[in-house]
Amino acid sequence: MKIGCPKEIKPQEFRVGITPSAAQEAVARGHEVLIETHAGDGAGFTDAEYINAGAQIIGTAPEIFATADMIVKVKEPQAVERAMLREGQLLFTYLHLAPDAAQTEDLIKSGCTAIAYETVTAANGTLPLLAPMSEVAGRLAPQVGSWTLQKANGGRGVLMGGVPGVGPAKVVVIGGGVVGTQAARVASGMGADVTVLDRSLDRLRYLDDVFGGQFKNGYATAARTAELIATADMVVGAVLVPGAAAPKLISRAQLATMKPGAVLVDVAIDQGGCFETSRATTHQDPIYEVDGVMHYCVANMPGAVARTSTLALGNATLPFMLALADKGWKAACSDDPHLMNGLNVHAGHVTYDAVGKALGYDVITPEAALAL
Predict the structure, then answer these.
(1) Which secondary structure element, helix H or strand E, spans residue 91, and what is its range?
(2) Most exposed: 6, 164, 232, 339, by fewest CB within 10 Å?
(3) Strands laid side by side in the 293-296 sheet
(4) In what order do the strands lie in the sheet with 349-350?
(5) What is the pLDDT of residue 278?
């Protein structure tokens, strides 16, 4: 199979879909790997490293899209990239379709087969291709939130860990999954007073057993959430409904109850955001203010630490990429129901229920898609 990896073109996106080591693995199995020139520069991988791994360096993205059987990326294809997708071509990347009607429509029109990293599952019910970036984003959230808290950036001017005689920042993390756990670990490590909210008692018990000495937890009722955000210096939105739009957990009206200069960090922004006032921002212009509350809503947070993120993502995606290349997508998905869960669009049809419900499309089952 010809596997193509174009350079990412989303603003401030420095990751790359295939590492030199992944390219070497694919080439060793008889596949051709086509890398757009300078695609790895942002993550610290040179064209020479790809050539040494056996990959071919291609001059332009259109050549990649015109030649490759499978396109492997990091972020969802941008409009100019979607226009280059063709019928029967396989796309393997993050998609986050539920809040993105324009992308979904373009993928349907293209006739391609699109498998989304974020809905591939594991036997234990986790999301193995989302987890590495969730870990990165979770660990980054308190770091970027503490920067936003600085007075020069519009924040309250509060130090996360305080100093002797002055209390620490109060941080509320909404969601106790991978993102929330990592955010709480780092925020508490910075000395903040941290509370994690979640609706799963099993998850709260786990957090208490493992991290009880580091941060507090609570059951995420609307009343408890409202009570805590009124005193918080920072709120991290860390909820995820796989493949679906994120629920809105803080309304605009509630901003009036928060401290002036408090910070909202919305790690769910790729799925539409979990605060009513959230809108996607970039690393170049990451923050904005609404009703005195600062918002950090960068849609590709892990791109800020591109090398770490690329290596972590590459470790997770490699086995699935090789299975798709070795067997073709139909056989690979038939053999692995967890990979099948990643199928979101095929041959003009939506195949993921949460996307269809969010955007009003009729949905066919992945099993039905195999017969097309």
Answers:
(1) strand 90-93
(2) 164
(3) 216-219, 193-198, 170-174, 234-237, 263-266, 293-296, 287-290
(4) 56-58, 32-36, 2-5, 70-72, 90-93, 113-116, 343-346, 349-350
(5) 96
**Residue 210 CB coordination number (10 Å):** 11
Residue of 99, 106, 154 lying closest to 278 (CA atoms):
99
pLDDT of residue 11: 83
pLDDT (mean) for 188-195? 98
Give the Cα separation of 130 and 199 in Å (integer): 21
DSSP 251: -
**Distance, C-alpha 303 to centroid of its chain:** 10
Give how far Cα 252 sits from Cα of 64, 148, 257, 287, Å.
44, 19, 10, 17
Q: Are 69 and 323 in contact (CB under 8 A)?
A: no
3-state helix, strand, coil in the chain (%, to 5): 40, 20, 40
Q: How confident is the model at residue 300 (pLDDT cuts 50, 70, 90)?
A: confident
Q: What percent of the chain has pLDDT over 70?
A: 100
Average pLDDT of the residues in 135-155: 97
| pLDDT at position 242 over 80 | no
Give the residue numbers marked as catalytic: 96, 270
Rounded to an integer, what distance in angstroms lies between the CA atom of residue 349 and that of residue 364? 7
Structure confidence at residue 289 as a pLDDT band (50, 70, 90): very high
Cβ proximity of 300 and 13 under 8 Å: yes
Q: Do 75 and 96 contact (CB within 8 A), yes or no?
A: no
At 245, is the pLDDT very low, low, confident or very high (cuts 50, 70, 90)? confident
Q: What are the residues facing 363 on neighbouring strands?
A: 350
